[in-house]
Amino acid sequence: MSLFRALRPALTAQTRRLTVSASLNSAAPAAPLRRDDVMAAWVEYFDHPDCDYYNYRLGAQHLFSDDLLFDPVVYQAMLYACRRFNNFPAAMRTLELIRLKCGDREDVYDWVMQELAPTLEDLGIPTVEDMNLHIVETEL
Amino acid sequence: MKFLSLARTIPEETRTTPEFNLHFYETLHVPFPLRPFQIGRPGSELAAVRAKESGDWKDLSGAEKEALYRGAFMQPITEQQQGTDMWKGIIGAMMLVMGSISCLTYELHTDVSGFKPNQAGFWYFWQPGWAQVRKNIAAENIFLEYTGSFNQRDYKHWDYVNHVWKNPQATRIDGAD
């Protein structure tokens, strides 16, 4: 194949191949990702062995800036990623942000914590209420 | 109660510890700061706990977990969501300004314009005595017809027959009110 390329005559100014940008501009837009594909992609992102705290920050900021509660599988992958780079406070902050994301929906928060209970038990992470991070002493 | 605080103030005992990290920045928009709140210099307790963090987290005691969290973050999310009392300061300043302007307006109306209490207002201005005031205001219109070298006569918009503006809503060039 490479030999065939070498035997081909040199291209002149008149006969020019389409550039990459032109073909991308004329290509049809990609199909939107399905919800399961999004979750699987995020799980793959956090399960990747090269994922360190910097990548975790990037992904977590993307996730928690979105007005959406992801499947607990994604949060599970995040907690295991925290375990992999040995950052316990990041796991606690993740749980706090899940609590913030649930807002006033306590039933949703209870369900998410229920789904994550085996993970927390496996990794030895307490919940936000166990560490009293949900209580604030007002200063007067 | 901080009425005019624009930023969160860090208590002095926290600021003066050698573990305090000047490059720390944490907000609700950036909940995962890159640098920890306390440095954990080699040989300190925090460094020892962070070394223990590499092992099983079930071996960490509650106090150690608390120390790890406090060493990494300054305030929990719930504390960051708190508001300040700044609105009280703003409304107070607004009331001070409005009060001072009211005093000034009263002084101007009584001492400069000569309005007396219960002797001013849209109905009262049509009593005898106020007609002279209106004549004085109308007399200023002479400046629009006076043919002095300095006068910018707006002949296009001034009605020289009836001595009024042709279109009262039009802008006057002499700048009077």
From TrEMBL, chain A:
Principal place of residence: mitochondrion
Its membrane topology: Peripheral membrane protein
Subcellular location: Mitochondrion inner membrane
Organism: Oikopleura dioica
Function: Component of the cytochrome c oxidase, the last enzyme in the mitochondrial electron transport chain which drives oxidative phosphorylation. The respiratory chain contains 3 multisubunit complexes succinate dehydrogenase (complex II, CII), ubiquinol-cytochrome c oxidoreductase (cytochrome b-c1 complex, complex III, CIII) and cytochrome c oxidase (complex IV, CIV), that cooperate to transfer electrons derived from NADH and succinate to molecular oxygen, creating an electrochemical gradient over the inner membrane that drives transmembrane transport and the ATP synthase.
Subunit structure: Component of the cytochrome c oxidase (complex IV, CIV), a multisubunit enzyme composed of a catalytic core of 3 subunits and several supernumerary subunits. The complex exists as a monomer or a dimer and forms supercomplexes (SCs) in the inner mitochondrial membrane with ubiquinol-cytochrome c oxidoreductase (cytochrome b-c1 complex, complex III, CIII).
Keywords: Heme, Iron, Membrane, Metal-binding, Mitochondrion, Mitochondrion inner membrane, Transit peptide
UniProt family annotation: Belongs to the cytochrome c oxidase subunit 5A family.
InterPro entries xref list: Cyt_c_oxidase_su5A/6, Cyt_c_oxidase_su5A/6_sf
Pfam families: COX5A
GTP-binding is among the record's keywords: no
Signal sequence annotation: none
Protein name as catalogued: Cytochrome c oxidase subunit 5A, mitochondrial
TrEMBL record, chain B:
One Pfam family this sequence matches: COX4
GO BP: any one term: mitochondrial electron transport, cytochrome c to oxygen
Record-stated family: Belongs to the cytochrome c oxidase IV family.
Compartments reported by the entry: Mitochondrion inner membrane
Species classification: Eukaryota, Metazoa, Chordata, Tunicata, Appendicularia
Membrane topology: Single-pass membrane protein
Protein's name in the database: Cytochrome c oxidase subunit 4
Cellular component, GO annotation: mitochondrial inner membrane; respiratory chain complex IV
Keyword entries, A-Z: Membrane, Mitochondrion, Mitochondrion inner membrane, Oxidoreductase, Transit peptide, Transmembrane, Transmembrane helix
Main location: mitochondrion
GO terms of molecular function: oxidoreductase activity
Domain of life, per lineage: Eukaryota
Species: Oikopleura dioica (Tunicate)
